[in-house]
Amino acid sequence: MYKPTILRQLFQSIPEAIGRVISFISGAVTRIFGPTDDDYPKTGVQPFEGDPAKDNKQF
Question: Where is this region: Disordered (predicted)?
Fold first, then answer.
């Protein structure tokens, strides 16, 4: 024996859950395919300032 209020709450929560899933996925798609929001400085290519590792030296 089901109570009508429990069934009503169940049927009302299903579209809300589907809406949350769609909102989550659309937010992810927007972030992936949207313009970048990186604030890196426009410095160009930086020179290498280190020494290459020797082949016989094991780390």
Answer: 35-59
